[in-house]
Amino acid sequence: MPAINEKVFISPARYVQGEGVTARAGHYVSALGKSALLIADDVVWKIAGEQLSESLKGSEVRFERVAFEGEASTREIERLADLGREHDADVVIGFGGGKAIDTAKGVAEQLNAACAVLPTTASTDAPTSALSVIYSDDGEFESYRFYDKNPNLVLVDTAIICKAPPRFLASGIADALATWVEARAAIRANANNMAGGKATLLGATIGEKCEEILFEHALLAYQANEAQIVTPSFEAVVEANTLLSGLGFESGGLAGAHAIHNGFTALHGEIHNLTHGEKVAYGTVAQLILDQTPQAELEEYLELYLALGLPITLKALKLDQASDDDLYRVAEAALKEGESSHNLAYELTPQQVVHAIKAVDVHARAFMEKVGLSE
Ligand SMILES: [Zn+2]
């Protein structure tokens, strides 16, 4: 590896968060374009479509709403880009969860249009980044697709997000908890971040702050979400899941947790019903074990994951019936060339990854027994 110490930090141009900010979407989007391709699935549209369309109309933004069909795949991006061309879209709005957002970013790039991201859950750190995670039409991880720029606008309405099921918030917390675990490992190894350079002090600080906020406020935010109320702790965790996690992973770096997540997508069966964050939670504990994290520190993570109902046993991950061959497939996918597992300071064999996956289950169950939780 050439020792080029070029530091790079990237981010969206504008981030707006608050209760009811959908009413301001027209104001912000009209600065980006006058003709919008609005990508939203039917469920999201039913919940909050009217609010958004009122706001766009009020600011004289024309829009064509197209239905997102569920997978952030090359085919879906091409299909929606064709619709955008038909309607001369100069701005693409992604309204929904992580995959709808990743699709919108791909469509905006194809159209050379501006991109506005309006997440309806705080379940991933997709909204702010200049990349999409591309899946096959069957939902298997294919690749990261990188863009020249981050979204122009990220607008997060906490009034909408607090109505989403708490499982989504917990998933976003898991994705955000991976941020510092992975970034600090990548930084230690002097690996490149997702922006193609070394981490700046700011990139690293964001990741560290993200973790601090989550350990202090994640459970309070989860409780607020269960009651569908917006509190300052809820606002802080939505920001940690979306802005801090998004900037922190992209300008800090990924490592083992996301590589193991990507490995899990190579399996078929019930694991596909788990969210991105749920699989990342398991991958994060596996990386912590590979990093030789001391018991007391490891248990702090285990405690938080369990309190949030995140799957950190093989049974909860729907892999209690998985064979060693299955786990090998996961490990081999996690260690593919170009995977972020190579950002760790140490080399790994598939066998070591399989052992780490099993160790997560062993340590999680031992901890549950210690604190009197049953599986
Ligand atoms: Zn993620």
UniProtKB/TrEMBL annotation:
This is Glycerol dehydrogenase. PROSITE patterns: ADH_IRON_1, ADH_IRON_2. It comes from Halomonas dongshanensis. Signal peptide: none annotated. It catalyses: glycerol + NAD(+) = dihydroxyacetone + NADH + H(+). The keyword Protease does not apply. The keyword Oxidoreductase applies. Residues 12-158 form the Alcohol dehydrogenase iron-type/glycerol dehydrogenase GldA domain. Belongs to the iron-containing alcohol dehydrogenase family. Its EC number is 1.1.1.6. Keywords: Metal-binding, NAD, Oxidoreductase.
